[in-house]
Amino acid sequence: MAAIIKPSDVPKYVPGAVTAASDDLGWNGVWLRGYRYTALDVIVPPVTDFTIVSYCAGSTFMERRYEGAWTKTHCAPGDISLLTRSRRSHWHWTEAIDVSHVYLTENLMSGVCADATDRCIADVGLHDVLKAHDPVVTAAVAAITREAREQALGSALYVEAVATQLAVHLLRNYASVTFREPGGKGKLSPVQVRRLTEYIDGRLHEQPSLETLAAVAGVGVWTFTRHFRESFGRTPHAYIIERRIDRARRLLAQSSLPIKEVASTCGFADQAHMTRAFQTHLHTTPAALRS
User: Architecture of domain 238-290 in CATH?
Assistant: First the structure.
């Protein structure tokens, strides 16, 4: 089986001049590269993310194979190609073209799908589309490309919103979805609960985001926050604070670590932060508890 590559590795297999890029812009779940290509015949290893190609300039005969027989067509500005994640593909075109590649991560697509359906997602796949004329996709790719070039105020937030809308449109029109059996209406499954508790307990010194925790559970952020409260009886933030306090209590009782170091080890911002948490939840201070 061919090794799966990241979008940033694609130029190693499909050489072209970069015309736009979102490298190091801090975008969440979406990545952009614009290219100017000559005629090429290339085999591309499986890519980690879903690929959307928007044709911006030039027209060409185009053929592609990633499963089964070759698909052949003619692509011009306004057309798009789609490729699902983790599929090896063979592309051949005969003329110079300018394109924009937008890559959407599995976490983004599965999370948006989970939020839209309120169900747990096992897998999302895009249909084999070498050519479609879809103004919604073209406009979304153009907006993301523009943000990569201009980096205007609120660019990352804007791109995240556009990418979410793009994901919904792709799911409605070009995707197949496999669902997991739910653990109970409105609740996380026992497997999801175990994954989350193990993940949180192993990283109390970190500051996990809602997006990260939702990805661990395999659902979207909106679904995650509702189902987490149903399953744990509290918000993710409140649960993490409780776990930090519990670990700090044990360290204070069982170790000689300085209180400042206990606070750092358990993920509190500083000793004062831990003291406030103890006073709120335990009605005492770390020093008083240790003594």
Answer: Orthogonal Bundle (1.10)
Strands lying side by side in the sheet with 89-93: 40-44, 89-93, 60-65, 71-75
Rounded to 5 degrees, what are φ and ψ at 285?
A: -115, 160
The backbone torsions φ and ψ at residue 88, rounded to the nearest 5 degrees and listed phi first, read -70, 140
How much is the pTM? 0.72
Mind listing the pLDDT tens digit for each residue in 103-113?
A: 999 989 988 99
Q: Does domain 7-179 have CATH number 2.60.120.280?
A: yes
Q: Could you give the CA distance from residue 244 to residue 117 in angstroms, rounded to a whole number?
A: 33
Segments making up each domain of the chain, as ranges:
7-179, 190-233, 238-290
- Rg over alpha carbons for the chain, rounded to the nearest Å, is 24
Instruction: Give the CA dihedral 14, 20, 26, 31, nearest 10 degrees.
Output: -40
Quote the CA–CA distance of 246 and 278 in Å, as a whole number: 10
Distance CA 101, CA 91 (A): 14
Where the chain has pLDDT below 50, the residues are none
Contact 93, 29 (CB under 8 A): no
Number of Cβ atoms within 10 Å of the Cβ of 148: 23
